[in-house]
Amino acid sequence: MAATVRRQRQKRRVCWALVAVLLADLLALSDTLAVMSVDLGSESMKVAIVKPGVPMEIVLNKESRRKTPVIVTLKENERFFGDSAASMAIKNPKATLRYFQHLLGKQADNPHVALYQARFPEHELTFDPQRQTVHFQISPQLQFSPEEVLGMVLNYSRSLAEDFAEQPIKDAVITVPVFFNQAERRAVLQAARMAGLKVLQLINDNTATALSYGVFRRKDINTTAQNIMFYDMGSGSTVCTIVTYQTVKTKEAGMQPQLQIRGVGFDRTLGGLEMELRLREHLAGLFNEQRKGQRGKDVRENPRAMAKLLREANRLKTVLSANADHMAQIEGLMDDVDFKAKVTRVEFEELCADLFERVPGPVQQALQSAEMSLDEIEQVILVGGATRVPKVQEVLLKAVGKDELGKNINADEAAAMGAVYQAAVLSKAFKVKPFVVRDAVVYPILVEFTREVEEEPGVHSLKHNKRILFSRMGPYPQRKVITFNRYSHDFNFHINYGDLGFLGPEDLRVFGSQNLTTVKLKGVGDSFKKYTDYESKGIKAHFNLDESGVLSLDRVESVFETLVEDSPEEESTLTKLGNTISSLFGGGTTPDAKENGTDTVQEEEESPAEGSKDEPGEQVEFKEEAEAPVKDASQPPPAEPKGDAAPEGEKATEKENGDKSEAQKPVVCRSSVTRFGF
């Protein structure tokens, strides 16, 4: 009896131990559920989090502020961030870095590098011969790339989020300007990896703003399309976006709200910073005039004095937005001399007259890319801190021809809230109401290749071909496949940007190289020698433009097929049962897929939103002769093949059915796939 009781107690101890382990695992899991977003602006950043019990909240920094300056002060043994670094800018301007995002992904000869050097001459930029970019030279032993500096800022934002959430955070959604190209987006991803962040998505800041607007007005969205224009003028740039809201029918959740980016226009250098630099130059001129008879040095040659003037210009711009005039004053500006001068709003507007003339530019670009008119726009909503300047609102209101401008959105925090909502959606740890987001490609991408053609017997010439992969304002994320049919040897093809005629001459110089990469394929000839008895189905290159707008070449493969007669063996009862169970749980395959080793179109599918002629996730196979018709990825492939453009397995299905009806003999299409390096 005693032995039985002891055994029962041991079993209870084991049970309690298992319960304790499970509880510990659950607690550990709950500690990693939080996700964050970083709205990375030129001048400041906003961090937001979502965790169990805390839905979408802006993180307060150590000074209990909701907005943190994007400034880093680097010394030999210590670093300062945010407001601490901003205060150090006066004492050590050379080691205090700001607006460094303008240098991300830029080569040393880019006009923006020269512009940055002109705006902030206190920083020493050195050339990196390996990457053809620039470094910040803090001291002879200390230098950092812009990506490394951004990585420090992202790591600091992570520490703020973790302190606020009281748990570790590794998953994040980061906002980037919509005009960032592939090099700039990859630079942000590299910085995030340095910070130890797992980037769920790089979301365009205009898309994040539109998502925030839609999420909080879900009940106002119906089947009738509503066209809203967001005009976002921040510190470094201006972006105008046209968004269409309406409810659409989805496969998973029925009728759900959707936002679609219809048009985008931007100005990379129009923003509050340029206004502040104009004010700084004006104040420097006033100070030099006051000291004209004292034979003093030019204040522009003193980095500390210019840092003080820039800070005062920032304050002055804000005050003049609400007042007709204001007194600028700085104690001990240079050589213990105080500075005091009155500046009026009229003077400020005269200084920035050419900037205000550029305000309507992004509006016209957005309308042109959306192929819409102002009459179709229901409302124009202001976003960004620089839109608070009265003259900006006056010029914009005249340009759009509306009665008033919408100010019913938090101009500073909208992008951060939209990004953190998307982070909650992507984390899979939270149950979030669906909101379909259809972003748009700003820069088209195409494939270029050259092949030899025989125009006449014995006369050969080279033909240059271009095939558009991702068209301008087409939706993404999206996967595409291009098939090369007339190559039986190793060859090269180029991935380039498409027509960038919508950019001005200066924007094209800032954009940089239009060649993304050159792919050199090896092993093509060997694959044809190996499968001489098979029919070639071409060389297929699989491209992916992911949620972050980053292009990747997933794989390149050579596909061969042959038709053989085969007598299928009788399946055993267990095999039939296993196939039935597999199909019930979505793991079954069609007879063609079992025999065909080639990756099929269905494996590339993503859930596309409805209502567009070019759905995200569609598989459009391009041929050298012509483009294949666009097919709906949600529909099963047709049984009738269309020349060489038919997906693998379609011809086999037709021939198999035809042979069975005539000779009652099963014919199986077998494929072989050879993947090779590039």
* Parts with pLDDT < 50 across at least 5 consecutive residues: 1-5, 23-31, 580-620, 622-671
- Percent range of helical residues: 25-40%
* CATH class wording of the largest domain: Alpha Beta
Q: How many helices in DSSP terms?
A: 18
The averaged pLDDT comes out at 81
Name the shape in a single word: globular
Question: Using DSSP, what is the number of strands?
Answer: 29
Tell me what portion of residues adopts beta-strand conformation: 25-35%
CATH topology of the largest domain: Nucleotidyltransferase, domain 5
Main beta sheet: 6 strands, mixed
How would you name the CATH homologous superfamily of the largest domain? ATPase, nucleotide binding domain
Helix/strand-derived category reads alpha+beta
State the domain count. 4
CATH architecture of the largest domain: 2-Layer Sandwich
Distance between the termini: 74 Å
Q: What is the CA-based Rg, rounded?
A: 30 Å
GO molecular function: ATP binding; ATP-dependent protein folding chaperone
Pfam families: HSP70
Keywords: ATP-binding, Chaperone, Endoplasmic reticulum, Nucleotide-binding, Signal
Protein name: Hypoxia up-regulated protein 1
